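Hi C.,

You asked whether I'd gotten around to modeling the 79-residue construct. I have! Everything is below, sequence then structure, no commentary in between.
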Amino acid sequence: MWQAVRPERVGLTTWPSVALGTDWKAGIAAGLGLRHTTTEDIGLAWKHILARVRTYADLDPAFSGRVEELIDFVTVPPV
């Protein structure tokens, strides 16, 4: 979900690369210069990212389209 937010919304041109073997969320938080050692730190990093989203335009259209397809799939009554 984090990468669904356009990186420009958090002041980046692209999402940081995270080294293999590193927890992805912790790596992203570190790349943003945020604390990233505890579960609470990771939750606060997500809040930091989420707070920058104002509209659907702040999300990657490829991701939001897939989410809409999933919602349609799980909510359509069986035939």
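If it helps when you're writing up: The two ends are 31 Å apart (CA to CA).

Thanks,
B.
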